[in-house]
Amino acid sequence: MFRGFYTAGSGMIAQQRRTEMLANNMANANTPGFKAEQSTIRSFPEMYLSSIGKTDIPVKNPLHLKGLKPVGPVSTGVYMQETLPLFVQGQLRETGLTTDMSLVDGALPANPETGRAGTVLFRLENENGQELYTRNGNLTLDAQGYLTNPDGYYVLDTGGQRIQLPNDDFRVTQDGGIMVGGAQAARLGIAYAAQPETLMKQGNGLYQADGNLPDAPNAGYSLQQGYVEGSNVDAGMTMTDMLSAYRAFEANQKILQAYDRSMEKAVTEVGRVNG
Amino acid sequence: MNGLQQQIDVIGNNLANSATNGYKANQSSFQEMLYQQFDNDKADSAERMSPGGIRYGNGAKIGTTLMNWKQGSLQVTGRELDFALTEPKQYFNVLMPGENGEMTAYTRQGNFYVSPAEGGRLMLVNGDGYPVADSAGNGIVFREGVKNYSVRPGGVLEASYEDGTVMAVQLGVTTLERPNLMNRLSDTVFALPGNLADLGVTAGDVLTEMNGANRQQIGLSSQQLEASNVNYEKEMTDLINVQRSYQFNARTITLADQMLGLVNSIR
Question: What are the angstrom distances between the C-alpha of A96 and each of A85, A109, B70, B134?
């Protein structure tokens, strides 16, 4: 009956999802290594409307022509199609802790298809031996002296091995070498994602890839010890986006109300016997 | 918002202890929460850049709270029984009553006192009244009539008596290799965690008793105290930052509430 009724409804749902995403960005405005999400909103695939009917040709012996009469294409709503993390470098924040390190993007080759550069990530290993990736350089040493992230996932070196250190009195060189007392104990494994948008967010700042990612080129990154990379969320812009999503939500709600009033009229006034 | 509240708590504790001798600042760091996968577009075959569906985050939480073990500045007090360790990660040993009798606790707070013990002798105690241990793990007891106390290299405390004799004690000093693993008894006192065996480590991995040749590495000076290593400016900027984030998140809740209000007022 009223197709627009559902269109307005889908608009509300899409704006609500967008608000949820922006709220998550806002909550993570202080999370190290967090990459802000962006959404793409897409209209439903278009439908081609045509009316089924018959045309009577008023001649002596009435002729009935059956067939489809085209009305035109119509779209019946919108939905949030994608959430894409924005892999722009966040600001470095000094913490002074030796186990905090931040990855700084260097000269990374741009993807010829999209024209966007890839990203570099720390290599982690979870308890099942699966490789995960993160930008959160807030690391720590576990009881056995392994370098881990706050969830206890092991940080891997260039050879894919866990890194065991005697204590947290070590130095990290720009190229990721971990120096203990003047000798290199290990070298941090840094992975390179040519198409970072294909990575799946796993929660806790972790990304999962289809298979294992290759090593990053040496010129592609540098490391800063005693700093963490801050979140790249722009609080002001997030708030503005949230307000505009809110207003779009409100506009859809008003249209829904207008449809409701039309229906009310149809029910109560059309066909009323006693005017 | 709960995470931010916790961070305010940590900052508040740091600021409150900015005048506590031997205090080491804590730093908390955030982490993302779980992500949910929504497969909302199974039927759509449009071109896209990311793997199918959309992923929602659920907010942020506190990831770790780590201790900053950097050396604090030294304050000259002029009191003979005030000691400061000038090397980071070195701690005085203090004997405290524990679950299984006496246990050793570790502190960098070096304001020691003498308290009367049996037989008219004097015992070296810390500010909380617990005995300070020597390198063998026993309490330190002096005879009556001490004229003055002085410090010799290698963590040795010398007490000169009025009759001219000198008594030398090696103060118990331990290096904590992994201060973050330690169990925090109070703001400045640490002890070994009770679940060491579960963690699969021995006490030797976590700390080194400074004995024998290691004693030369002890940096001990008297008539000084180590000030807290809390950095006022950093804590205050963090506090402002956290408060603003709190406001932003509160505003988000208001918006979400108004959206629900709109849904309610459709009819």
Answer: 28, 32, 8, 33
Cβ-defined contact of A253 to B265 (cutoff 8 Å): yes
Identity of the amino acid at B257:
D
- Say yes or no: B177 contacts chain A, CB-CB below 8 A: yes
A256 touches chain B (CB under 8 A): yes
A residues 179-238 closer than 8 Å to B (CB): 195, 197-198, 200-205, 228, 235, 238
Alpha-carbon dihedral A10, A11, A14, A18, rounded to 10 degrees: -160
**Radius of gyration for the alpha carbons in chain A, expressed in angstroms and rounded:** 28
Secondary structure of residue B17 in the 3-state scheme: coil
Q: What's the rounded Cα separation, in Å, for the pair A41 and A43?
A: 7
* Residue of B4, B11, B54 for testing the chain A interface, max A β-carbons within 10 Å: B54
Residue from A229, A248, A219, A185 nearest A87 by CA:
A229
Strands A119-125 and A190-193: antiparallel
> For strand A78-85 and strand A200-203, is the pairing parallel, antiparallel, or unpaired?
unpaired
Token pair, residue A32, equals 């190290």
Collapsing DSSP to helix, strand or coil, A100 comes out as: strand
Distance in angstroms (rounded) separating the CA atoms of residues B149 and B132: 15
pLDDT tens sequence across B13-60: 888 777 778 788 888 877 777 777 777 666 666 667 677 777 777 777
Contact check, Cβ <8 Å, B200/A27: no
Q: Tokens at residue A207, please? A: 């990304």
Our CA dihedral for A111, B32, A26, A231, rounded to 10 degrees, sits at: -50
Nearest to B177 among A144, A167, A228 (CB): A167
- What residues have CB less than 8 Å from A13, skipping those under 6 apart? A79
State pLDDT tens for residues A41-81.
888 878 888 877 777 777 777 777 777 778 888 888 888 88
Collapsing DSSP states into helix, strand and coil, what is residue A6? helix
H/E element, B35: strand B35-38
CA gap B213, B190 in Å, rounded: 25
Q: Which two three-digit tokens encode residue B104? A: 């050793």
B27 at interface of A, judged by CB pairs closer than 8 A: yes
Task: Give A59 to chain B, closest Cα distance, Å.
Answer: 48
Answer for the pair B52, B39: CB distance below 8 angstroms, yes or no: yes
pLDDT tens across B67-89, in order?
Answer: 887 888 888 888 888 888 888 88
Of the candidates A24, A80, A242, which has its C-beta nearest B255's C-beta? A242
Cα A2 to Cα A5: distance, rounded to the nearest angstrom = 6
Three-state DSSP class for residue A226: coil
Strand partners, A63: A57
How far apart are alpha carbons A78 and A17 in whole angstroms? 11
Q: Is A145 on the interface with B (CB under 8 A)?
A: yes
Cβ neighbours for A67, distance < 8 A, ≥ 6 positions apart: A54, A55
